[in-house]
Structure formats: structure tokens, C-alpha cells
Amino acid sequence: MKRTRRFCFLLLLVFAVLILGACDSGMALISRPVSRQVFAMDTVMNLSAYGSKAEAALEKCVNTITQLEEVFSVNIASSDISNINRNAGQAVHVSEDTMEALRTANKVSLMSDGAFDVTIYPLVSLWGFSTDIQQVPEDLEIKRRLPFVDYKKIRLNTKQQTVKIPEGFAIDLGGVAKGYTSQKLADLLELEGVTSAMLSLGGNVQLIGSKPGGDPWHVGVQHPEKANTFLGTLSLSDCAVITSGSYQRNFTENGRLYHHIINPDTGYPAGNGLLSVTIVAKDGAYADALSTACFVLGEQRALELWQERGDFEMILVNISEEVIVTSGLANIFIPDEKSSYTYTFAN
Ligand code: AMP
Ligand code: MG
Predict the structure, then answer these.
(1) Which pTM was predicted?
(2) 288: CA distance to ligand 2 center in Å?
(3) Which residue would you say has higher pLDDT here, 43 or 17?
């Protein structure tokens, strides 16, 4: 009798040790995520990560967000961008992050024939999108500023790590900064040993690995006219899903809606029939710049760029209530059954 009891006790002990051991490795992944909410870059950011390394890694992420905001913001006087803008006409020494973000911006500017252009700031500030007070500017004033927008005039000196823009020019990284940040956070989390995390920076989602257990993450594609409603859901792992939409930041004057994505050729908000562009790509900064670029390019030219490049997928939503999904997403996009929009696949 005594022997049986001792045997049972030993058996329980072995089980307890096994369970504790498992909790410290894979099993802990199935438990709840560690989450942080941060308000930065004018955006509510939700970070969520799994596993025993998550807590410490997310702490580092919060610091990285603050650091990058201090470097990129046009509204912080000591930022790299404010420094470049204040010293237009002279070469300004900047951080590696600024150089890297500007290199990605330049690549997408070249690809999109200038639809993406970080020297857009003279126009963004004229419309008031960098502040809380927005207004439709005088047409003459818009025309006067157009010659001060041209990404080809940015001088990036990689060796000296300096940036120079001509006098009268000004840079705004708003179209690439959040994607750059989410990519940096993903790199950091991986380095810290986190293999499963989801970061949501406003309309920007960055996925690290898969869900605990190996299933893909589900990312909703926002309905452009109905808050908290999705046009469909993407099932994905380890990539960036980034949306630019006219619904994200805008104002109405005399019954007309004016949004924050400016066509560098006209100086007016891009008005080519698109309501949103969602880009799926490996790199967050690239996806972010592309989402803005494709929004300006419009449906036809965006699809041409997609065919030409082959390194991203996208979902376009237009004013005719059509959702155009590129073929690489065909098997992983589930449309909302109740939606009145029509769905087509592009090849
Ligand atoms: P996103 O939400 O990523 O499409 O970025 C929009 C932000 O990028 C705006 O709020 C501006 O700060 C900036 N922006 C607007 N138009 C352009 C453009 N044509 N190229 C680059 N950046 C732009
Ligand atoms: Mg963007």
C-alpha cells in the first residue's frame, strides 16, 4: 500500500516537472499575449507578443518607437527632419534610420515616377495636414509651391551620412515613417527571440511569425466608409499589411472632402477614384511608401506597377464600390459575405 502511494507521488512529481518545463518553452506560447498600447506619431499603436521573452522585448519596442519619433517628426524641432528642413541649402548630418528611410523613399519615388515624394511637405503644410487646422488653400499658392517639390533634388551622401535639400524645399516622412518603425520593431523582436507577435500602428500591421500554434494571423481590410467594419480578411504570416486611405485623415469644406495624400504633380489631394490601397510585402517601410505611391498612381498604374515588380501584393478599393485583389492574395483573402461591394481578382 505504502509502495503504491509512493509510486503515485513520484508519478505526480514527474508530471509536474514536465508541465513546468513545457510552460517555459513552447507551451507558454499558447497562453495569453503580452500587450502594450502606445500613442506616438499621431497614432494609437497596439503591440502584442507571445512567449517568455515578450515582456522585456516589448519594453524595448516602446523605447524604439520614442527614439524613431524623435528622429522623424516634422513637429519636433530637434528631429533629423526638422534639422534638414531648417538648414535647406546645406548638408546636414543625420542618423542611420533617417538615411535608411530616405533610401527606401527614394527607391519608391523612382519606381512610381514621383507619385511618392517626401519633398511634399511645402504642400502638406499648406493644406494644414501636419497641424490640427486644415483649409483649402488658394490655387495660386498651390501653384507657387509646386516647383519646390521634387525628390530628385535630395542629395543623400551615404559615406558622410548627410542629407541636403535645396532652399525652399522641405521633407515629410509621414508616408513611410510608420512602416519603417513597424519593420524596425519586427527586427528587434526577432533579435530578442520573439517568434510570434502582431503589431498594429494605425492602418499599419506588421506580423512576426505566425500565431502561437502555427496558424496564420487574420488581418481585416478596413471598410472605407464604415468604421469597425471589414471588407474582408487576409490570413498571413511574417509580413507587413499596410493601408493608405482617404478616410484616414481628411476634412470637409463646402461639401467636398479633402484628404491627406497629395498628388505631387497637381498639389491637390489625389483624386483618381481610389478610396484605399492595402499593400502586402515583406518589408514594412517599402509597403508603407508603396501604399501612398499606389494611392496617388490610381488603379490602372498601380496594377501595372504590381505586374512589373512582382515583390508585393495589394487590395484596391474604388469609389464604384469595387474591391480589386491581386492574384497572390486570391487564396488567403476571404470577402465579407454581407458586403455590397463587388470583388474581382487581378492577374
Ligand atoms: P500614408 O498614410 O502612408 O499614405 O501617408 C500619408 C502621409 O504621407 C501624409 O499625411 C503626408 O504626411 C505624406 N504624404 C502625402 N502625400 C504624399 C506623397 N505624394 N508622397 C509622399 N508622402 C506623402
Ligand atoms: Mg504610406
Answers:
(1) 0.91
(2) 4
(3) 43
